[in-house]
Every structure is written in structure tokens, then in C-alpha cells.
Design a protein that fits this description.
heterodimer, A: 13 helices, 0% strand, B: 299 residues, mainly alpha
Chain lengths: 313, 299
């Protein structure tokens, strides 16, 4: 299979997954118990008002027609109108998106900056204190609920030490605590995987050969070990970017950070279901796109992965 | 006939030996034993919590609201003057109970789908895998939030939401190990004997393909507790005044500045429970995976 046809099929697969995801969100919102029109109108609303909302939203049409309507409007970039704001859903998402991107990017950068050096050193010295620190960090990062870590950090740095603001987004300082909270959740896991990947690379034959032929330790590390450890590390970073989108929903709520995560939670409480549905679709779409881009990058960069990917698809 | 009886006895003995080996791994590891003890206590609390709690977890008294820990109330009182210790004990039923049920449900349904997908192949495999790919395209917490928000609040919808959002991984895991098992001689033999495909699947394939899913389920408990408590924190979980641990943190966060103990203790309870389940998962994996077991012996 040529590269071009691989790219074509992989892209098509992503598109089909996205349409499937729209169908699932559609099923969750429209088919499962609970009437969206009633949800929007509220429990005390009159039946005629509920009926009017139903007609406005096209909920009185047959389901398959609603689905086709929805797909075709999504294809045109129209995610509907927010009930609370009265504006197009896409505009609301675009207005809030830079905040989520800034938070995610800074958090992942902090995590990478700490975890990669830590993991590499821990792999070279597997019985050192640093290696134990990696293990402990990994356990704590995956065991502390992210909202609780956030609140504890607020208590320490905003309430006790009074050095950082507790919530909002008025200045760059406001980004520090939410980014550190999110980074704490990522760092341990990333360091553990880095350690494992580097240890595996260290044990491989070509590294042993490189050492045996007298290459200096620094060169062995950069030329042979790190290059081979890079693929698993990049994979986990890619997976993390997905969980980052999820983690951002909670972190943004704790710190009143005005990204799309806190917008989603708000929209659920206002029963602004077109907005909620739009944000969910947007996040899933971004997630699918991210996976597509990573796979394509792999295929372009690494000949071994390229072969495996082609065999699978 | 006699040969069969002997074979059965040998199998039984092998099974007993394997369980004993798992127990040996636990016994030689103090941290794992402590984790096992904590998990046992938490599960016991979620069954018998209301009988063990020293006070009524719902009994409020605003005049003593937000009292810090004291000998009388070891973990203090919350924003409504309710005993936090009693609320944590009774709340185990919600936080841990919901997680146990949702993991069991998600793992069972997911494993069954993985089994069908891997054993039957063809159209079954294609359909199950494509739907699974789509579910995997959702970040777990997002899928759970979406489901809870639109199915409605309450214990049942929480269990269903977390189960569905955790299911896809089991479909993958079990399918992968089923593909390895179906080519084994004993499965081929069972097929040749003319046993029904359900019988082969459930009696011969599943028991030999399930251990990765069991290890994953132990790990998943931690994740399920995180999701359940996050939903509670966001106010999408069990409605108040239920003492679900995440919801306790959510309603106590307003008083973080003056009374941090309201937020501190439920968070510790969640963290300790999750750490214990994760250590249990690690130990179980070591015990079930012969490769790492051999490695351990060498050190």
C-alpha cells in the first residue's frame, strides 16, 4: 500500500469514526429517557411551551431526519444556537478555546520538562532515590482526584501563602495554579513510562553493541537510547493530550478558568443542551483529529511503524 | 474414564496451586497486604456503613457548623454541622459501591463483547470493533459526563454511565487474548467434539483469556472512583444530601478559606482508597504474569 492510499484510508476511517461519534451523542441526547425540550423548558413549564420548543428545535420530526439535519449542519460548521447566550454555539466555543489551549499547553510543557529528565535519570540509576520519587509521583498523580489537588493548592498558595490568585483569568499568574494542578496529574505517569522506555532501550542489542565498540556514554544516550525511547514517549504524550481535554473540564471548573471545559459544565446546569452537545462534539472531533495527525506523523517519521500501520489497516 | 478423573484432579490441583502462589506474592509484600486490608475495610464499610457509623450522617445542626476536628468529632463537622467521619463511613457505599458495580458491569459486558468479537470474527467482529472505536474516541470522563447529564442523576444512571465509559478497554483486551487462545489445541479439540460455540466460548476460551481483564478491572476501580467522585464534585452525581465523597468536597469547597478540614478528609479518603486499589492491581499483575514473577524471584 502506498503512503498516499494509507493517508486516504486513515482519513476516511477518522471521518467515519467522527460520524459515529455524532450518532452516539445524538442517541444520548435524543433517544435515551429524558426529553430535551422538557429539560430546556424546566419542570414547571406549560405543555404548549414545551411543544413550541420542540418544533423550534425540530424535535417533532422523525429521528432519522433529525440526525441527517444535524450531520449536514455540522458539516457546514453550524453547531446550533446557544439557548443561554443566543449566539451560535461555534462562536462561544471559539471565544473560550484559547484559554483551554493555553492551559493544556502549559500543563503538558511543565509535565514534559520535569518528567523526561527525571525518567531518563531514573532509568540510568534504577536503584536511586530519584527512581523511587518517580514511582511515588506516578502513584500520587493517578490517585489524587484532580479537583482535590486543585483545592489543596489553592489553600496552600492562595489562602496561606497569599502568593497566587485562587481563581479567574485576569493575569498570566492566574494560569499557574490550574496548570500545575493539571501537570501534577500528568507528570508521574509520563516519568514512569519514560523510565520504562529508556530502560528497555538500554537493554537492547544495538545499545550494547554501541557501548562495546567504545562509544562515549553521552553519545550512546543521545544517539541510540533516546531515539529509540522516543516512540513510546510520544505515544503517551498523545494519549495524555486526550486525557488533558477531560482533566481540563474539572480543573477549569475548580479555578473558574474560562475555557471550554467550564463552559460545558455551565451549559449542563443551564440546560443549554445545544451548547453542551456542540462542546462534546467539538472535543471528540479534536480528539479524533489529534489521533489522525499523530498516526500520520508516525507514518512519515518511522519506517518500522509505517510498516506495522500498513499491515493493520 | 479413569484418565478423565485423574486429569480433573490434576487441573483442580493446578488451580489450587496457582491461587496459593498468588497468596504467596501478597504475603511476601507488606505494602500489598496493607493495601488489601484497606480495600477489605472500604468494601466492608460500603456494605455495613450505616451500622458502623457513630452518628447519623444526615443529622444537621447549623449552630455547630464547620467545627474543626475534636475528640468528640474526630474529623470535625461539615458546613451543615454534620459529622464528617460518619458521612465518610456511610458515603463509602456511594463512592466505592458505585465504582465496584460499574466496573463489574462494564468489565462483564465488555469482556463478553470482546469474546464474541474475537471468537466469532467476521461481521460480529467488524460491527463490535467499529462501535468500540467510536466509544474509544471519547475521553472517558467526557462520555460519563454526557451520559449522566442526559440520562438523569442518581445511583443507577451513574453506574450505567461509568460502566459504559469504561467498557471499551475490556472489549479490546479480551478480544486480543481470545485471538491467542482460539488456536490452542484444547479449543480446537473442543470444537471438533462438536460442542456448541457458546459452550466452547464460555467454558474453554473465556477462562483462559480473562486474566488481563481481571487485572485491568482492579486498576479500573481507581479510575472509576475518580470519575464517580468527579461527577459528584461537579454536582452531576448522586443528589444531596447523600454523603458521596466527591459531592462532600464539592459542597465544602465554598468554605475552603476558613474550614479546610471539610475538603481535606473526603479527599484523603478518595486518595487512600484509590492508591490501595492500584497497589492491589500491581500485585495481582505481578502474581498473574509469570514473566514478572520469574523476574521477582531472581532478585
Amino acid at each position: 500500500m502506498s503512503l498516499l492510499s494509507y493517508l486516504f484510508f486513515r482519513g476516511l476511517q477518522s471521518l467515519l469514526t467522527f460520524i459515529g461519534a455524532i450518532l452516539i451523542v445524538f442517541v444520548i441526547v435524543r433517544v435515551l429517557p429524558g426529553d430535551p425540550a422538557r429539560l430546556i423548558a424546566g419542570p414547571e413549564a406549560l405543555e404548549e411551551d414545551v411543544e413550541r420548543i420542540r418544533v423550534q428545535l425540530g424535535l417533532n420530526k422523525p429521528l432519522y431526519e433529525q440526525f441527517i439535519d444535524y450531520i449536514s449542519s455540522v458539516a457546514r460548521g453550524d453547531l446550533g444556537r446557544s439557548i443561554k447566550y443566543g449566539t451560535p454555539v461555534l462562536n462561544e466555543i471559539i471565544a473560550r478555546l484559547p484559554y483551554t489551549l493555553a492551559l493544556a499547553l502549559v500543563a503538558e510543557t511543565i509535565a514534559v520538562a520535569i518528567a523526561i529528565p527525571l525518567g531518563v535519570v531514573a532509568a540510568i540509576r534504577p536503584r536511586s532515590v530519584l527512581s523511587s520519587i518517580v514511582s511515588v509521583l506516578a502513584v500520587l498523580g493517578s490517585s489524587f482526584p484532580i479537583f482535590w489537588t486543585g483545592l489543596i493548592l489553592i489553600f496552600i498558595f492562595a489562602v496561606k501563602l497569599r502568593v497566587l490568585p485562587s481563581s479567574g483569568a485576569e493575569s498570566p499568574q492566574h494560569l499557574i495554579l490550574p496548570a500545575v494542578t493539571l501537570a501534577f496529574f500528568l507528570t508521574g505517569n509520563l516519568a514512569r513510562i519514560t523510565r520504562a522506555a529508556v530502560m528497555e532501550a538500554l537493554a537492547s542489542n544495538h545499545v550494547v553493541t554501541a557501548i562495546a565498540k567504545g562509544l562515549s556514554p553521552g553519545k550512546v544516550l543521545t544517539r541510540h537510547v533516546l531515539r529509540n525511547a522516543l516512540i513510546p514517549i510520544l505515544t503517551i504524550i498523545n494519549i495524555q493530550l486526550g486525557s488533558l481535554l477531560g482533566g481540563a473540564i474539572i480543573t477549569e471548573t475548580v479555578f473558574a478558568w474560562p475555557g471550554i471545559g467550564s463552559l460545558l459544565v455551565d451549559s449542563l446546569f443551564y440546560r443549554d443542551y445545544p451548547l453542551a452537545q456542540g462542546i462534546i462534539m467539538f472535543i471528540v472531533g479534536a480528539f479524533i483529529l489529534l489521533n489522525l495527525v499523530t498516526d500520520i506523523l508516525y507514518a512519515l517519521v518511522d519506517p518500522r511503524v509505517r510498516e506495522i500501520l500498513w499491515r493493520v489497516t | 474414564m479413569e484418565g478423565n478423573v485423574e486429569l480433573l484432579n490434576r487441573l483442580e490441583e493446578a488451580r489450587r496451586k496457582r491461587l496459593l502462589e498468588i497468596w504467596e506474592v501478597f504475603k511476601s509484600n507488606r505494602v500489598a497486604l496493607i493495601a488489601l486490608a484497606i480495600v477489605t475495610v472500604t468494601v466492608a464499610l460500603s456494605i455495613a456503613g450505616p451500622h458502623i457509623a457513630p452518628r447519623d450522617p444526615y443529622d444537621f445542626d447549623l449552630s455547630r457548623a464547620r467545627k474543626p476536628p475534636s475528640p468528640e468529632y474526630p474529623l470535625g463537622l461539615d458546613e451543615m454541622g454534620r459529622d464528617i467521619l460518619s458521612r465518610l463511613i456511610v458515603g463509602a457505599r456511594y463512592t466505592v459501591g458505585i465504582s465496584v458495580f460499574s466496573v463489574v458491569l462494564g468489565a462483564s459486558v465488555g469482556s463478553l463483547l470482546g469474546l464474541i468479537s474475537g471468537y466469532k470474527g467476521g461481521l460480529w467482529d467488524a460491527v463490535i470493533q467499529r462501535v468500540n472505536d467510536i466509544l474509544l474516541a471519547f475521553p472517558t470522563i467526557l462520555l460519563a459526563i454526557a451520559l449522566v447529564a442526559f440520562i438523569g442523576q442518581g445511583v443507577h444512571s451513574l453506574v450505567v454511565a461509568i460502566a459504559i465509559s469504561s467498557m471499551p478497554i475490556y472489549v479490546r483486551l479480551v478480544r486480543a487474548s481470545v485471538l491467542q487462545v482460539v488456536v490452542e489445541d484444547y479449543v480446537v479439540a473442543a470444537k471438533l467434539l462438536g460442542l456448541s460455540s457458546w459452550r466452547v466460548m464460555l467454558k474453554h476460551v473465556l477462562p483462559n483469556a480473562i486474566s488481563p481483564a481481571i487485572v485491568q478491572a482492579t486498576y479500573h476501580m481507581g479510575l472509576a472512583i475518580l470519575i464517580a467522585s468527579a461527577l459528584g464534585f461537579l454536582g452531576l452525581g448522586v443528589p444531596p444530601p447523600t454523603p458521596e465523597w466527591g459531592a462532600m468536597i464539592g459542597s465544602g469547597r465554598t468554605y475552603l478559606f476558613s474550614s479546610p478540614h471539610i475538603v481535606l478528609f473526603p479527599g484523603l479518603a478518595i486518595a487512600i482508597t484509590i492508591i490501595s486499589f492500584n497497589i492491589l492491581g500491581d500485585t495481582l499483575r505481578d502474581a498473574l504474569d509469570p514473566r514478572s514473577r520469574a523476574l521477582l524471584r531472581r532478585f
